[in-house]
Design goal:
single chain, about 210 residues, alpha/beta, Rossmann fold, Arc Repressor Mutant, subunit A, 2 domains, about 50% helix, about 10% strand
Length: about 210
């Protein structure tokens, strides 16, 4: 019996994926999550998931953070990206960081079914328009991804606030914690990224 996990905070698309799976894999077990933290917990609780369908952007994750974290922590779990983003650079980066498929949310249910079937058969799947237009990921970005994957979702959230120029007290208020907690997160971020200050961390993140 196949086991799928759908990680997406949009209920309409989550239900669309669920409908495709239930139609073509009626005996499959399907679990769901709406943020990165719950997704990680689901993967920790179940080591038998055959395919993770992961949205690029949901609470706790933006850009490729969710993907690189999952690939670092759960290397044996196949990950197919589901996303509204259909830019060549994003698709190339996602595949370069270990995704086994990239399913745009504009795909029809029939195409989604075809994509899932192809991936379950051990193939990589991309829309036809992207198959001959992928670009390799730079070694520098791969090395950075390994460092970023060591951050917790909370630390990654703090890092994104730093990228936007927020002050510690603003971040603390937004996250509902003390400034001391934010300072501890920032110290851990600097250690994991190999930087010593905000400017270095922000500049480094421009490459990701």
């Amino acid at each position: 019996m196949y086991q799928f996990h759908i990680a997406d905070d949009h209920p309409l698309f989550r239900n669309a994926i669920l409908g495709v799976i239930q139609l073509h894999y009626p005996d499959a077990k399907v679990t769901q999550s709406t943020n990165l933290e719950d997704t990680i917990s689901a993967l920790e609780a179940n080591g038998e998931i055959d395919l993770l369908l992961l949205d690029l952007h949901m609470p706790g994750s933006s850009d490729l953070f969710g993907l690189v974290m999952v690939r670092e922590k759960f290397a044996s779990v196949p990950v197919a990206i589901i996303s509204a983003i259909e830019e060549e650079a994003t698709v190339s980066r996602a595949m370069g960081h270990g995704a086994c498929g990239y399913i745009p949310k504009s795909c029809t249910p029939q195409l989604i079914q075809k994509a899932i079937e192809s991936i379950m058969n051990g193939d990589r799947w991309l829309p036809e328009d992207f198959k001959n237009n992928l670009h390799p990921v730079a070694e520098q970005e791969k090395n950075l991804a390994q460092k970023i994957a060591t951050l917790t979702p909370q630390q990654y959230r703090v890092l994104n606030f730093l990228r936007e120029g927020w002050l510690n007290k603003q971040i603390a208020y937004e996250m509902g914690v003390t400034e001391a907690t934010i300072k501890a997160h920032i110290t851990a971020i600097f250690r994991k990224l190999g930087t010593t200050n905000r400017t270095q961390a922000v500049i480094m993140m421009k490459d990701f």
